[in-house]
Amino acid sequence: MPEQLRTSTRDLEELRKRATVWLSARVGATVSVSEMSRPSENGLSSETLFFTATWDGRSTRCVARLAPAVEAVPVFPSYDLRAQFHIMRLAREKAGIPAPRALWFEPDPGPLGTPFFVMERAEGEVPPDVMPYTFGGWLHDASPADQRRLQDATVGVVAALHRTAFTPQDLAPFGRAGLRAHVEAQRAYYEWAHGEHRIPLLERAFGWLEAHWPDDPGPDVLTWGDARVGNVMYRGFDPVAVLDWEMAAVGPPELDLSWMIFLHRFFQDITIGAGLPGMPEFMRREDICATYRELTGYEPRDLDFYEMYAALRHGVIMARIWQRRIRFGELPLPDDPDDLVLHRATIEQLLAGYEPAS
């Protein structure tokens, strides 16, 4: 895994001063904003800032999410912060999910140079991406029973979101529904993300999807989009904050389930490649699907298709991230553009398992 990547070019002290002016006007009182900081782990898209705001004798620990500056070479082409703010409130108020309490949304780029929102900061532990939680640490070292408790509770978050009845007005910010719309959006994202370097492996995977399209993609639900343990804060192996809603969409439940399964496989494969055992009994497909079925009554289907799609989606994101590192002079451009995909071997293995030998 790469070291912590550069995600911002903005000056923290300047942001603190501007946030102080904005928040004082917002709450109608003189506000003191503490020194700002950025998280040291996880998160490669929206810019995240930590600070404490104090007014009228009360202090609130806050997290601000800002769309990244263009010069930071963003991971995604656009950042709908209004939709993220909206889904956190929906998840918390309608689905009973411990999404962070959404405090303020500011659509005007004037105050901080870009739209942003502020949420309340929670306390807990997050399984890290760097180094991956499969290498060691509190989750890796936990008992099998506690690991399963955390796994089941995380599937429970997804199930609670999926089984909640949202109104058409609730779902309007998330655009077109359905698997076809989702894949078309991912194809458009790939066309933007690859820049000057097309990636044959990912284009092969897109072709595989078309050749193996499900006969019935299933019901459409509101999906989290980035459903994985690295986007959850835990206390005592129970979720206390469900984070990172920027990939939310309306589509089949399997989008979230396969993402959760594949992202663990991604880290597990890295760990095995480093000569360590990792966590082979954690986040197994059969266990995730069994728990989801018990909680919702729905039988997940076509998981081979959705696992390939998850690997492809993650491949586009990883290729963009590695191209960012090339842009910042941290890595050279590889001779083979397929090497821009960190989990190239996994996608090749999936394709080899499903395609007839030539």
From TrEMBL:
Entries under InterPro entries matching the protein: ACAD10_11_N, AGP_Transferase, Aminoglycoside_PTrfase, Kinase-like_dom_sf
Keywords: Transferase
Keyword Transferase in annotation: yes
GO molecular function: transferase activity
Gene3D superfamilies from the UniProt entry: 3.90.1200.10, Phosphorylase Kinase, domain 1
Cross-referenced SUPFAM superfamilies: Protein kinase-like (PK-like) (SSF56112)
Keyword Transferase: yes
Every Aminoglycoside phosphotransferase domain range: 55-263
Protein known as: Phosphotransferase
Organism: Nonomuraea gerenzanensis
